[in-house]
Amino acid sequence: MDTGTAGSMEGSSPHHQLVIQSLVNLPKKLEFDLTYRYVRALPTQKVSSYGTMDARLGWHVAPQLELSVAGHNLLQPHHAEFGGDPGGLVGIKRNVYVKLVWRPVRN
Predict the structure, then answer these.
(1) What is the tens place of the pLDDT at every residue in 69-86?
(2) Strand, helix or coil at 46?
(3) Which residues lie closer than 8 Å to 35 by C-beta, 6 or more apart?
(4) What is the pLDDT of residues 33-52, one digit of tens each?
(5) Distance of alpha carbon 83 from alpha carbon 93, whole angstroms
(6) DSSP secondary-structure letter at 43?
(7) What are the beta bridge partners of residue 21?
(8) Which of 6, 13, 34, 79 has the fewest CB atoms within 10 Å, measured from its CB?
(9) pTM
């Protein structure tokens, strides 16, 4: 192990992380998923702790067709997840998307 870089690496991984996830099948072929994430600060990279949530609503329109709407990082417009080297913090933005999946029926 390179002992020269050990000091600069300390604090680059969070000491605590928490993930709580709920995946629920609802009536009428609907699915509702929630995920909450909390990550402790990365002091070496100057990244503050953050908590954020993802949500997804899916609908199985037919056996081979699924439509879903999902949002990621919904609790704030953006947050930093790690420090760039070289450069500044690397931020993750809130986003929402629609997904359509077609799975051919196999005989």
Answers:
(1) 999 999 989 888 877 666
(2) coil
(3) 19, 20, 21, 22, 53, 54, 55
(4) 999 999 998 888 888 899 99
(5) 15
(6) G
(7) 35
(8) 6
(9) 0.78
User: CA 100, 58, 97, 92: dihedral to nearest 10 degrees?
Assistant: -130
- pLDDT of amino acid 10: 64
State the greatest distance between any 2 C-alpha atoms of the chain, in Å, as a whole number: 61
- DSSP secondary structure letter of residue 42: B
In this structure, how many other beta carbons lie within 10 angstroms of the beta carbon of residue 51?
12
Instruction: State how far the Cα of 45 lies from the Cα of 59, in Å rounded to an integer.
Output: 40
Residues making up the chain, counted from first to last: 107
Nearest to 29 by CA among 72, 63, 73, 75: 63
Q: Can you give the pLDDT at residue 81? A: 80
Contact 81, 73 (CB under 8 A): no
